[in-house]
Design a protein that fits this description.
169 residues, mainly alpha
Length: 169
């Protein structure tokens, strides 16, 4: 396929003056320079368009990443909020159960204190009864020992009397 020439926008019938006329005198150099300039302009325009396209693509990628990150952050914030609510619910349940147990503990402690109040006089009476019984036992022992002493004494007296009687006869 033959190469196509890029038109410069001037018709061949236009007359050139000055430096432009010199270009027409050297058609191959003028045409090459003109082609190079046109190619450079097209390349610069293509580069600018390509850079804009890359920038737009990068901007779209960044926007998509930001959107995805924002959604992920929102999901995590929601998840954290749910976890915090669960923790607060558990804490509230704990506090309620703790209060119930503390109430039960206070009731038991109060019942123990009441029982102690009732038991203290009973214990005092029981202790006094034991002391009194101990005194009675001690007195009984003393009486018994006195009786034994008297019995022993009377046995000695009888034995002495028998001894005296035996020797007298």
């Amino acid at each position: 396929m033959p190469k196509r020439r890029v038109s410069t926008g001037r018709s061949r019938s236009q007359t050139l003056s000055g430096d432009e006329g010199d270009r027409d005198l050297k058609p191959s150099q003028s045409s090459d320079d003109h082609n190079n300039e046109a190619f450079a302009a097209v390349a610069a325009e293509f580069k600018a368009t390509w850079e804009k396209k890359l920038k737009r693509r990068d901007d779209k990628i960044v926007q998509a990443a930001e959107k995805e990150l924002h959604l992920a952050l929102q999901d995590k914030e929601t998840e954290i909020a749910n976890i915090i609510n669960d923790i607060e619910t558990l804490h509230q349940d704990f506090l309620e159960q703790y209060a119930i147990l503390e109430d039960k503990k206070r009731k038991i402690t109060a019942a123990i204190a009441e029982a102690q109040e009732e038991l203290i006089p009973l214990a005092v009476r029981h202790h006094q009864a034991i002391i009194s019984l101990g005194h009675q036992v001690e007195n009984g022992q003393l009486e018994g020992m006195a009786l034994i002493k008297d019995a022993c004494q009377s046995t000695r007296d009888i034995a002495q009397e028998l001894d005296t009687l035996r020797f007298d006869s």
